[in-house]
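Input record (Table S2, row 329):
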Amino acid sequence: MPSPSQQIMRLGFGFAVSQALRVIIELSVPDFVATGEQSVDDVAATTRSDADALYRVMRLLAAEGVFREVLPRHFELTEVGAALRSDRPGPADFVRMTNSEAYLAFEQLLYSVRTGMPAFNKVFGSSRFDWLSEHPEQAALFQRAMIALGQGSNEAVAEAYDFRPFTRIVDVGGGHGQLLSLILARNPHLSGVLFDLPSGIAAAHQGAGGDLPRTEFISGDFFESVPSGDVYVIKKVVHDWDDRRAAAILRNCRKAMPPNGRVLVAETLVPPGNEPDLIKEIDVVMLAVTGGLERTEAQYASLFDDAGLRLEQLIQTQGPISILEASPA
Ligand SMILES: C[S@@+](CC[C@H](N)C(=O)[O-])C[C@H]1O[C@@H](n2cnc3c(N)ncnc32)[C@H](O)[C@@H]1O
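Output record (S-adenosylmethionine complex):
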């Protein structure tokens, strides 16, 4: 059993693992090792890297279960590492995305803790989404990373809710459009609106999230207004914003919907207790990067109150996401 100070030192070196992962992705190492056991000298030659340096990075990641060193300086890919192959897009994009701007913002986490404000704005001089609007390549990576993060959970949300009573669904901040695509495929009676900033709509136009039949693509700012519809899905958007801004988005949905309309906030709730949970990491990332937060059911209910909505029911999907269904109060 490591001593307390050894445990703390290991925690304090978290950045070494996250940046090592990013490096092997940038060098496409998982692709080269995917074909079978490889010597680090061959991988280094193919990736034009220093063999000894690459060996040390791969040895570190072997200790984390990404590779297996089967003979001295010969590695194979584990099942975990295989998730990083480029023919399985998703996790690799997510690691790339979190370990670039978000990583740099984290150096100023103390600023966020002292002020409650996003360190990202201090480091980059603009908010996360304004910055992405000015950096199309990073915005496209962000949308791919969102697809990775939603893997499985978009299907679970589309499956868990009965959309039969509605005619027009608006996906607010729908980005790549994968959730809307899955809902429309299951509900041929629905027409759809994908609403996002131009950078999100661009990803959907490129087909990033799948087919979008019967869909109007509208770009705009959800703090100004949202298009009209009778059911709103808003997944992993409210968590990007503090209470004041989150309530403003929900109020705009409330204004645009008919009295029998519904708003479906799809988010992962913060569980009680001390167990490790990815959502606790994402919560602190929200603090430093966007200025948002992960919430409990009670916190969402209170947000709905502020926005003139009432929490009707909480639906736990098959994945980590819950659907909080709200109606006009
Ligand atoms: C965390 S992503 C979630 C995307 C998608 N709903 C999902 O679950 O993968 C937040 C989305 O909100 C969009 N967004 C941010 N600010 C916005 C604004 N002011 N108006 C409209 N969309 C905005 C972003 O472009 C992004 O697509």
